[in-house]
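Example S7 (structure tokens).
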């Protein structure tokens, strides 16, 4: 996971999302705006759907504790992928999200 480090939180978040979007199998995802991800209202109820929700959100937003062991980091990565998918599903039914999907 060391390849995700960057100079600023915003760059990291953008980089993680870009990395996720470029991963094989994720071709139909669009980039969810960082503001949307950071607005807790948009995440309501997702904490019950995702294992290690807080850590997964921390990974997506560059606040994950770097001292996690490799096994736990892999688990959190899997949860972050799931969480991003759920956030994406909510985002694309917004006006801005629909516009992004049409242009994608």
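Recovered sequence:
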């Amino acid at each position: 996971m060391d390849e995700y480090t960057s100079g600023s939180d915003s760059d990291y978040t953008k980089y993680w999302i870009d990395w996720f979007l470029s991963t094989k199998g994720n071709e139909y995802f669009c980039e969810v705006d960082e503001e949307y991800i950071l607005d807790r209202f948009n995440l309501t109820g997702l904490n019950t759907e995702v294992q290690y929700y807080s850590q997964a959100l921390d990974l997506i937003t560059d606040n994950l504790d770097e001292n996690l062991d490799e096994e736990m980091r892999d688990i959190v990565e899997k949860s972050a992928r799931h969480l991003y998918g759920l956030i994406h599903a909510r985002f694309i039914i917004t006006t801005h999200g629909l516009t992004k999907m049409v242009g994608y």
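Notes on this example. Residues 7-103 form a domain with the protein kinase ck2 holoenzyme, chain C, domain 1 fold (CATH 1.10.1820.10).
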